[in-house]
Amino acid sequence: MLKTIAGTRGLVRPRRLRRTAQIRGLVRETELSVNDLIYPIFVKEGLVGREEIPSMPRVYRLSLDELVVEASMVKELGIPGILLFGIPQVKDELGSYAYRPDGIVQKAVKAVKENVGGLLVMTDVCLCQYTSHGHCGVVREGRIDNDESVEILARIAISHAEAGADVVAPSAMMDHQVLAIREGLDKAGFTDVAIMSYSAKFASALYGPFREAAYSSPSFGDRSSYQMDPSNIREAFREIELDLREGADIVMVKPALAYLDIIARARSKFNVPIAAYNVSGEYSMIKAAAEKGWIDEKRVVMEVMTSIKRAGADIIITYFAPQVAGWLKA
Ligand code: PBG
Ligand code: ZN
């Protein structure tokens, strides 16, 4: 006969498995590993040395020399890879500096590949840092032209592959960008270069510090005609589905924390690696509160990282990567 809840007192005691560190370790369901982490890095053309980003303490715009120093540190910590963002000296209407062979990202990829062996090099593929208007695509009569943008994005991805990138990560949220990039890469002989698509990228206010770091705020309007409405979850699955059909190897949900439900449900729907981008605003909020002494930074960061993994992310892209790697070692 089933016991009543009252009758089970003394029989079921969940606290038995929380008694010591050893037993808690045995029953722990989610364990963060350095292997889960990717570190985003900003490289600035023409810069000498490094400049700290005011809203992102410990994150810098780096010269090519400093990039090599940073990448070596990342490698030393056991972090498997970096995601490169370029900040060009010159912007134009069409973002043409994004696909030049001697562009800042192309040089950055080469510098890392030549000087730091065994580090996975991923590149962000977008136009917003390179266009004078700051949009992620080409502007025609005040609107973002999808199909023209997609052609340029493919050229950018190929130029990154030519420089030696292992993974290209399109973030422009243009329709069919993954297909155009996959076809372009394959035609150019880069069948082994993988695509990590920013599939479900939301029009979020949490990108604020990044845009300050990369000088990439749109000069008119906003990004809601291409990035997703934060209210939508079914549409996120549709975006992921389309990107997989177009040949994406890894799909991404971005931002991470305010979108853990999307990560969790995508995890149960799709049998592919899922990346989550713990974005700049998520970083800055923790840094600011920690600086004020209002929270314990290490504990909050580890809790947040664990939550992203527990939700189902295989890969966590985070500005905290070096600190987390250090804490995991200690
Ligand atoms: C460029 C891009 C952005 C981010 C990654 N790639 C900014 C944006 O869409 O405005 C945001 C990353 C972050 O906030 O850390 N398309
Ligand atoms: Zn962009």
Summarize the structure in words:
The protein has about 325 residues and is of the alpha/beta class. The chain has one domain: Aldolase class I (TIM Barrel, Alpha-Beta Barrel), CATH 3.20.20.70. The chain is about 40% helix and about 20% strand. It has eleven helices and twelve strands. Strands 1-4-5-8-9-10-11-12 form an eight-stranded parallel β-barrel, surrounded by nine helices. A two-stranded antiparallel ribbon has the order 6-7. α3 links the parallel β4 and β5. α2 crosses α3, α4 crosses α5 and α8 packs parallel to α10. The longest helix is centred in the middle third of the chain and has 18 residues. The chain is globular and about 70 Å long. The chain binds ligand PBG and zinc ion (ZN).
Number of helices: 11
pLDDT average, as an integer?
Answer: 96
The CATH topology turns out to be TIM Barrel
Q: Could you spell the SSE succession in H and E letters?
A: HEEEHEHEEEHEHEHHEHEHHEH
Number of domains: 1
Query: Which stretches are poorly predicted, pLDDT < 50 over at least 5 residues?
Result: none
Radius of gyration: 21 Å
Bound small-molecule species: ligand PBG, zinc ion
CATH architecture: Alpha-Beta Barrel
State the total count of DSSP E strands: 12
The general outline is globular
Helix content: 25-40%
Strand order of the largest sheet: 1-4-5-8-9-10-11-12
Largest sheet: 8 strands, parallel, barrel
From the N-terminal CA to the C-terminal CA, the straight-line distance is 51 Å
- Give the percentage of residues in beta strands: 15-25%
> What is the top-level CATH class?
Alpha Beta
